[in-house]
């Protein structure tokens, strides 16, 4: 008998109509009743929180991770029901917080609440149970619309459609339908590089580059943040004419604050040395993030900074593949 624990956190999947719009309100015991019962699988349920995932914070990631760790011995697999808006962040965060976890942890949710016509929730619940109870893989995954994604690679790309999530720059792990799972990709095993830790440093800022970005923002960042992520243009470029951003990167780096350079382009990663506008950023101390997505970079940087603020160690760890988060070249 496989023991599977369902942890509920709210989200659209558990939402009901209120005078202020949809809001989480479905009891955990009601939500779990929608799962299809399977021979050889025993389902238990526990409510962790009940919130719209827009309100999900890093402290909530820690609470979910601690709850999973507390039940490690009693269960063979875990399913976390979650709102879709920040589920990509939570999936990535749990991938780091549960680094080295030796059982499958599956996140799922829905675009339409349970109990409503045309809901996708029932299918996603069934598919998540299929994967959780049949897989031999360990670690954190996201199951949505019949596809299984690595937790560090799942990004919400649509606001209304059922196929709301995509696996960015990484193959889908499996497809799931009507109780059957078809493996699509076997992740390569990773050599552990850190002792598992549940500490996070939330003093992280994401800055999206745009034409006209003021250089004054770097004074605030230097005084208040422990890590900065810049969503650059194209392959990693930032402007150095008129509003020259390069001295801002140099200032933060000189202060021992890691500056992670990613791209606003969702797919294919970056080649920061391809153009002068990127090489200048790298020469100023910018730490390129390969083909990682922003959700994973945010969670990983918080996790790494929670263990060390030594700049070169942060650089090394951010550029080291962890939980299949990057293919760094």
From TrEMBL:
<dbReference type="Pfam" id="PF00710">
    <property type="entry name" value="Asparaginase"/>
</dbReference>
<comment type="similarity">
    <text>Belongs to the asparaginase 1 family.</text>
</comment>
<feature type="domain" description="L-asparaginase N-terminal">
    <location>
        <begin position="4"/>
        <end position="182"/>
    </location>
</feature>
<feature type="binding site">
    <location>
        <position position="53"/>
    </location>
    <ligand>
        <name>substrate</name>
    </ligand>
</feature>
<dbReference type="GO" id="GO:0004067">
    <property type="term" value="F:asparaginase activity"/>
</dbReference>
<dbReference type="InterPro" id="IPR027475">
    <property type="entry name" value="Asparaginase/glutaminase_AS2"/>
</dbReference>
<feature type="active site">
    <location>
        <position position="12"/>
    </location>
</feature>
<feature type="active site" description="O-isoaspartyl threonine intermediate">
    <location>
        <position position="12"/>
    </location>
</feature>
<feature type="domain" description="Asparaginase/glutaminase C-terminal">
    <location>
        <begin position="203"/>
        <end position="318"/>
    </location>
</feature>
<dbReference type="GO" id="GO:0006520">
    <property type="term" value="P:amino acid metabolic process"/>
</dbReference>
<feature type="binding site">
    <location>
        <begin position="84"/>
        <end position="85"/>
    </location>
    <ligand>
        <name>substrate</name>
    </ligand>
</feature>
<dbReference type="Pfam" id="PF17763">
    <property type="entry name" value="Asparaginase_C"/>
</dbReference>
<dbReference type="InterPro" id="IPR020827">
    <property type="entry name" value="Asparaginase/glutaminase_AS1"/>
</dbReference>
<keyword id="KW-0378">Hydrolase</keyword>
<dbReference type="InterPro" id="IPR027473">
    <property type="entry name" value="L-asparaginase_C"/>
</dbReference>
<dbReference type="InterPro" id="IPR006034">
    <property type="entry name" value="Asparaginase/glutaminase-like"/>
</dbReference>
<dbReference type="InterPro" id="IPR027474">
    <property type="entry name" value="L-asparaginase_N"/>
</dbReference>
<dbReference type="InterPro" id="IPR037152">
    <property type="entry name" value="L-asparaginase_N_sf"/>
</dbReference>
<dbReference type="InterPro" id="IPR036152">
    <property type="entry name" value="Asp/glu_Ase-like_sf"/>
</dbReference>
<feature type="active site">
    <location>
        <position position="84"/>
    </location>
</feature>
<dbReference type="InterPro" id="IPR041725">
    <property type="entry name" value="L-asparaginase_I"/>
</dbReference>
<dbReference type="InterPro" id="IPR006033">
    <property type="entry name" value="AsnA_fam"/>
</dbReference>
<dbReference type="InterPro" id="IPR040919">
    <property type="entry name" value="Asparaginase_C"/>
</dbReference>
<protein>
    <recommendedName>
        <fullName>asparaginase</fullName>
        <ecNumber>3.5.1.1</ecNumber>
    </recommendedName>
</protein>
């Amino acid at each position: 008998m496989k023991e599977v624990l369902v942890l509920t956190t709210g989200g659209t999947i558990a939402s009901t109509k209120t005078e202020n719009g949809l809001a989480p309100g479905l009891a955990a015991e009601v939500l779990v009743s929608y799962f299809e019962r399977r021979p050889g699988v025993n389902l238990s349920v526990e409510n962790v929180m009940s919130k719209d995932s827009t309100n999900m914070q890093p402290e909530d990631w820690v609470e979910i991770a601690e709850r999973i760790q507390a039940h490690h011995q009693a269960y063979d697999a875990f399913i976390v029901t979650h709102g879709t808006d920040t589920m990509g962040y939570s999936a990535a965060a749990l991938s780091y917080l549960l680094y080295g976890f030796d059982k499958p942890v599956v996140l799922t949710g829905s675009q339409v609440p349970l109990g409503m016509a045309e809901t996708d929730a029932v299918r996603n619940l069934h598919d998540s149970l299929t994967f959780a109870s049949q897989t031999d893989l360990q670690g954190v995954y996201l199951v949505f619309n019949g596809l299984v994604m690595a937790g560090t690679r799942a990004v919400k790309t649509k606001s209304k459609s059922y196929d709301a999530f995509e696996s960015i720059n990484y193959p889908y792990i499996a497809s799931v339908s009507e109780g059957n799972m078809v493996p699509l990709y076997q992740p390569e095993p990773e050599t552990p590089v850190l002792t598992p830790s549940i500490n996070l440093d939330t003093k992280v800022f994401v800055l999206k580059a745009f034409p006209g970005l003021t250089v004054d923002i770097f004074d605030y960042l230097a005084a208040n943040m422990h890590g900065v992520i810049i969503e650059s243009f194209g392959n990693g470029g930032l402007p150095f004419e008129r509003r020259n951003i390069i001295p801002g990167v140099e200032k933060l780096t000189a202060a021992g604050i890691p500056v992670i350079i990613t791209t606003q382009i969702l797919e294919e990663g970056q080649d920061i040395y391809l153009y002068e506008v990127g090489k200048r950023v790298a020469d100023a101390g910018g730490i390129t993030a390969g083909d990682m997505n922003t959700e994973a970079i945010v969670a990983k940087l918080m996790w790494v900074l929670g263990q060390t603020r030594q700049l070169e160690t942060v650089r090394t760890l951010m550029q080291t593949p962890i939980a299949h988060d990057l293919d760094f070249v």
